[in-house]
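BUG: 3D viewer hangs when loading the predicted structure for this chain

Environment: internal workstation, default settings.
Expected: structure renders.
Actual: progress bar stalls at 90%.

Input used:
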Amino acid sequence: MLPDRSSSSRAAGFGLVFDDPALEAEFWKSQDATTVQQVRIASVLGMAIILFFGFLVHEVITFGHMGDYVLRYGLSIPAILVAVLLTYYKRARRYRHASLGIAMLMSCVVVNHDIVYTDLPTDWVHSANMLVVGFTFTFLALPFRIALLLALVQTVLYETALVHRVGLDWFYITYSNAFFLSVQFVSGTAGFMLEQSYRRNFLQARNLDEQRALAEQNRVLSDNLLLNILPEEVAEELKTKGHADAKYFDSVTILFTDFKGFTQASEKLSPRELVEELNTCFMAFDAIITARGIEKIKTIDDAYMCAGGLPEPKTSSPVAVVHAALEMQAFMTRRKAERDAQGKPAFEMRVGIHTGPVVAGIVGVKKFQYDIWGDTVNTASRMESSGEVGQVNISEATYALVKLQSPASAGDATAVNGEWSIANGGSTHSPTPIHHSPSPPQGTSHSPFTNDHSPAFVFTPRGKVQAKGKGEMEMYFVGSLPQ
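Structure tokens produced before the viewer hung:
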């Protein structure tokens, strides 16, 4: 969840301030970036006005005074130029408010100097003071507290100038003060309301950004949850169309695992220990199949089911599924050794694999589950139940697809018409050799069998084996070459 900061502002000191200092700093960073072009234009316009009045004073009306030259061209104009230049350097923008404040202060000094030391009509000088007030509270986007402080300084300078101007009666001074202070009040109120508006807009934009960020977080979370349930292609179809069409696949390699003596082992474990051990095994299986692009279908009790060749046929091959099965058995062998050494019950596992056509899709409207159907699923299950502990039992269909991955020779085993026999008189039913795939190198998380086209398998034909509901079927134990 995103942090819920206070969205209130309050009057504090000479200006508006957010309760949260971090929020206040964020506001001015945003405000300065938003109004930088406005400030540049207003500053250039202010310089143009100062230069224009200087031209009138010194060249047209010739009421000028040497002090006006110094203040106008030596202090005020350079101060404004510096303030403008600072807006072009990001590192110097933190000094923008101070530089603009100094520039406006110099302008105040110029205007009120002219009241005392020149013969300019006082109405002109009053108008110039009004322009300074307007720029201070509005165009320059200064913090209200700084603008208010400048207005107070300007008022003091103005009152001082009026008192020192020769020839002004008290009625005129009173009238000028009333008019000037009224303009100050109206400008100050406008500046206060303008900054309130800036802050309100900032909060609205910020809250909108937070809502969008939160919505994006929720979308990513929901997408990740959906991808934990469905394949990516199916999830995208479901989000786009509102449903996912069932699809037929003519060649999918299905892997089933089942733990031998699960019931007996579970009686020796607490419910928590049982779930933790199952989770350890299934997490390892998840990592193995994910590395090979195999799709997990589901777990049922202590059985684990996955399939290669869907939802995209090119994501994994029968060879990849066989490699994964060998790695699973290798993991279980290591796990059993660890548990035995600790005196704890351990699982042993059968694995069965079959390749054939299936239909895949989603059924129901609650608790979506990507599933597969067809006789291929039943046959793969029979391969598992007809297998042996520690072995990977494959069907004739799967064997036909992966047998080309076998080497020309492997120790005492030789290739005979595409099948294997042990060199003991040509018997095709020699004792079954067990070849476990090697453990991954320490420090690596990927499978050691990364090349599906490497000669890595040794097959032991079992002949025709009775399978429940299927009759006799040709089956093969498959192992990997000793490393």
